[in-house]
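Input record (Table S2, row 868):
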Amino acid sequence: MCHSSTTAIVPGRQLLPTNVKPTHYDLTLEPKFDTFKFNGDITISLDVKSSSDFISLNTLELELLETKLVTDKGEFKPIEVKYDDDDQSSTFKFEDEVLKTGESVKLSIKFIGELNDKMAGFYRSTYQEDGETKYLATTQMEPTDCRRAFPCFDEPNLKATYDISLIADKKLTCLSNMDVIDTIEVDETTKKVVFNTTPLMSTYLVAFIVGELEYIESDYKFRDIPVRVYTTKGYTEGGKMSVELAAKALEYYEKVFDIPYPLPKMDMVGIHDFSAGAMENWGLITYRMVDLLFDENKSTLATKLRVSEVVAHELAHQWFGNICTMDFWDSLWLNESFATYMSWKCCNHFEKDWKVWENFVGDSLQSALTLDGLRSSHPIEVPVKRADEINQIFDAISYEKGSSVLRMLANWLGEDVFIKGVSNYLKTHSYGNATTEDLWISLTEVSGKDVKSTMKVWTTQVGYPLVTVNEVKDSKITVEQHRYLTTGDVKPEDDTAIYPIFLGLKTDKGLDESIVFNERAIDLPYEDFFKINGNSNGVYRVCYEPERWQKLGSSASKLSVEDRIGLVADAGALSVSGYSKTTNLLSLVSGWKTETSFFVWDEIITRISSLRAAWLFEDEKTRNALKSLTGNLVSERCHSSGWIFDKDENFLDQRLKALLFGAAASSGDLKVLASIEKMFAEYISGNKDAIHPNLRATVFNSIASKGGQLQYKALLNIYENPQSIDEKITALRALGRFENIDILNDVLESLLIGKVRPQDIYIPMQGMRAHKLGVETLYSWMTLNWDKIYKLLPPGLSMLGSVVQVCTSGFTTMDKYEEIEEFFKGKNTTGFNQGLAQSLETIKSKSNWVTRDSKDVEKWLIDNGYLK
Ligand code: BES
Ligand code: ZN
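Output record (BES complex):
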């Protein structure tokens, strides 16, 4: 293994002092399931960078027992140990001048930690097996919880090698990043499992697991490297799809990056309690159960797509992030955007039929533009000053905007050139760290284009441009760029950046991608047919004059699927912000009933649903009219394609059927509702095949929304005894759909008393967010139970922000805006301040939207026969 380049320490990009640099950790841990503690013994080898008398490293909720420092001059005990709560660091002070520049020393610490239930650090996961409660010990270090598992220099650019050993009962499986070199008997019942030395790596990627586990190995052979899925008893078969994809994806990435996978094995483990979706620990990827397991007969296509995405994403990190790591968290996008971009490239390679890049325009690009349309968004490269700020930046900017910017860049450079540059970048910084600047350098070298100055604006500025198009017929087209804000209230100080915009001009002559529009405004020659942002390759929105919208609406055949998705999305977003009328959107989509693409339909339905969500608190007549509008758009098509699925049917045709069925149900389509009743009745009377998995969410949600205690019991029963993990989650989400206050209160009550795993508590809340009573009930529950919620989901971990967001963002009026603001006034919002600000701004934009356009929408609904 080659551990060539180490990283220079850049002062100011670390939160810890830089007087020493760790090179190697020798760590032994012994979890105790009877007391939920663990014993630890660590020796850290350090290079002394500057003479001093102290060492600071990170610890959190660790009890330090004995510390000694071994130097050339002998052994030293610290004369003082100081803990800094704010920095989560322990500082050992020694006698004067113990540490001399250029020396290598060893710091040994014995310690005790808590095998906590917070899904952070070295923690316990609890599950039931054959009526018995069982425990598994596992880790989640990213971003800054390694310090809960052992004392460490918890910074991404302080890479070191690790020798890890685990002490545990002989019947338990012990896993870590590396393969096992030795298993030593400690006593009759206990063993010590010793793992091979890791490559140079960051603390946040260290992992170890102790538990009763089973595994399956891939049939597909990836060199001679075993690729396995581990689960607790009885779940391994569900890992079949993931394990085969993983073996193939490793081979794929090896080829694409031209860098071999450096470890001797790849284990992927399903964990019952897991805060994120999955974690890319080097050689030992951990997953939430739903994001790893797939059952060909019982799971949905959406699950198939999600599981493939997650697996492909975490494997991409084995190169992006693990071999080459961002220098500091302010460049998190280098990890997450690349893993996201590469995961789609990988899925596209293996599953052409899924048309994942079309999917990307409707999903990733839109979530990026949605979040980044808020003033409370942040640039892709975002300053981070404190550890507790880091969790919040794992958001749509770091994942979706970043990957959208990469897609735009790859399109500009050509995908092959882009990948070549990326491969060079990875090779140059292997086993080290890199900055965005380093990436631009590699891409500039390989492409000969000025990548840095073109891309810098995109990664350092918050927001994105709106390109406004004005036409002088037969003469010219003027395009002008200004900042886009969802609230529509751009001020001069918001609008200082000029973006290099890849204009992508689509005309009857084809797509001209040569124009980089880098000024406030330019003129283009007039064209009878044209569209800006061809194939939606750019990260911006376009606003046309009303006649042009109409022309584009009737030119669907000249536009690609990506174009059509982009047009619907832009029309939708521009009506929210007031740059164009909502009726523009309504006219556009009303003309597209013959659309054939699943993704375009998905975008149409999403935009109409956002309209319905913004009108949630408006009068019932208008809301019903919007419902019939949905029905008018989808019912006919839904009836004609039906809702029977054939296994051999094209992936997207199946997804379209499921989508139309769901939309028809939400519009109150009688035929669909009758069939839902029938399926559900058959299902609960014992025919488990009565509901096709692809229809399950619609059936459960619809039954719940009209249901009472009987249906509640039935859905609870499905939640407790599911046929598959994704069915369990679907039932849980549907519990929030009951429009019955007693049931909703009961559901909310169950979240705080451990009936629902803390990792899942936001799921029924998502169901509640979908209806008026739910939105109101959810918010009053949150305000009444704030202290309990805060205790259950401490802000240093990642979930509180999402909970605050689901509990507040469903409202649509300024009264509620003020009420929410008032509630949080004087409370410490560290760890969720961004989520809260984004939620408030979303409410404001909905309120503005309704106030501005409700009359217009009403008139359109009357003119088009939906409202009397
Ligand atoms: N590195 C993240 C996991 C993570 C997220 C750790 C937040 C700490 C805080 C992982 O690679 C990841 O991105 N997981 C995603 C799934 C992915 C397919 C987008 C997740 O957890 O949802
Ligand atoms: Zn990731």
